[in-house]
Design brief:
By secondary structure, this protein is of the alpha/beta class. It has 2 domains: 200 residues, Peroxisomal Thiolase, Chain A, domain 1 (3-Layer(aba) Sandwich), CATH 3.40.47.10; 126 residues, Peroxisomal Thiolase, Chain A, domain 1. Strands 3-2-4-5-1-6-11-10-7-8-9 form an 11-stranded mixed beta sheet, sandwiched between helices. The two termini are 16 Å apart. InterPro entries: Beta-ketoacyl_synthase (IPR000794), Ketoacyl_synth_N (IPR014030), Thiolase-like (IPR016039). It comes from Aurantibacter aestuarii. It holds the Pfam family Ketoacyl-synt_2.
Length: 339
Amino acid sequence: MKTCYINSAVSISTQDTFDVEKLVFKPLDYSNSTVKAKYLEFKKFISPIALRRMSSAVKMGVTASQLALSKAEIEVPDAILTGTGMGCIDATETFLEAIIANNEDYLTPTAFIQSTHNTVGAQIALGLKCKSYNNTYVNGAVSFESALLDAKLCIELDEDNSILVGGIDEIGATFSDLQYKNELKDDSEIRLPKSEGAHFFGLSNIKKENSICLKSVEVLHHLKINSIETHAISILKKCGLDEVDAIITGHKNDEFDVYYESLLENTFQNTTQIAYKDVVGDYFTVSGFAVFLAQYMLINQTIPEGLTVKQNKAKPFKTILLYNQEQGQNHSFILISTC
């Protein structure tokens, strides 16, 4: 099988992460239930005529994908694979509100057409005139991982030479607020605000100067707490490894953090441990940001300022394991390394 390389990584998030040389994270504002991404001057990347009909998810996705393709030196990819938890939820809410307001009469189809989950992937393909394999995964908290796994298999089995992979989610004014409130309990601490972002990667079977290797992607719907550490170790062994240099986890300051602690308290207790959701918020495809962060660490050999870090010993970063789960389900493990 061929090796799968990640040749570019681009992120639009609640922090200044788009096309910057040095990452520095600032504390997230917990006073609101939602935090929007730092929007760019999208008109620099998208024509004003097209821009006015695009939702924030499409704007972020198209912009991030353009830079990811440019950095990976890909003109037109052999496949476009995206993951999203809620798609263009803002357009969905607009359409549903119009149904109620107009008593199901005299509805324009525009919002409905723009609300489909594959809108971002379709817009990217239209802009590139790409007629190749195009698929969107909507699998909750493992939507991005599903797209990444598909891309990895396509590269390894020599079905495609270059693939654009991305994870996108936007804030829906109504849904995100309801989702946040539903997770709260009377005696709970302040939870992470809901947020949004777009993270795109250029994958290829060709190694370049700043390439990193995508070693493993695994997704499991159910996994018992006492099996998490064992499963992580088995992933390392499959890749010929005994340890990793860092672990990036999706801690959320809730009762399900025990899943992360079960992984970190024994075999990996002396491994550098990094949490990231406290600086970018939470949404279904936020794990795409974790891959972006890991790629930055492997290339620059440093941990960005502002992250929650437990660093035990200073040594070069060669392998990084990413672990995420959502309310005790949809577990994902991603292993990447230097080449």
